[in-house]
């Protein structure tokens, strides 16, 4: 489970803990940038609402093809 503290959100540390093995500094920076893109409100946590703003299934190839 990513939401270790059961807050209903995933903070950056919870996000990183699930990415294994330990990462180099360069990779950690890339992951940080990805998290920041998901965290649309910039509050340090990723909510369902943040994800809805980033991902739209209507653009997924399987949705487009009718699968």
Description:
- By secondary structure, this protein is mainly alpha-helical.
- The chain has one domain (10-65).
- Helix content is 48%, strand content 6%.
- The protein has helices at residues 12-17, 25-38, 48-54, 61-65; strands at residues 10-11, 45-46.
- Strands 1-2 form a two-stranded antiparallel sheet.
- The protein starts with 9 loop residues before the first strand and ends with a helix.
Question: How would you briefly describe this protein structure?
Answer:
The chain has 67 residues and is mainly α.
Task: Name the descriptors.
6% strand; two-stranded antiparallel sheet; Ca-bind; 2 strands; single chain; mainly alpha
Form type: globular
Give the spatial strand order of the biggest sheet: 1-2
Mean pLDDT: 87
Number of discrete helical segments: 4
Total number of distinct structural domains: 1
Largest sheet: 2 strands, antiparallel
What Rg do the Cα atoms give? 14 Å
Share of helical residues:
40-55%
Q: Report how far the terminal alpha carbons are from each other.
A: 29 Å
Q: Give the tally of β-strands.
A: 2
**What percent strand?**
5-15%
**Uncertain stretches:** none
Please outline the helices and strands:
Blueprint: E1 10-11, H1 12-17, H2 25-38, E2 45-46, H3 48-54, H4 61-65
Antiparallel strand pairs: 1-2
């Amino acid at each position: 489970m990513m939401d270790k503290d059961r807050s209903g959100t995933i903070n950056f540390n919870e996000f990183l803990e699930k990415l294994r093995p330990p990462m180099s500094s360069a990779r950690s920076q890339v992951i940080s940038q990805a998290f920041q893109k998901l965290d649309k409100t910039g509050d340090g946590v990723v909510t369902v609402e943040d994800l809805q703003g980033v991902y739209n299934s209507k653009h997924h190839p399987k949705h487009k093809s009718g699968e």
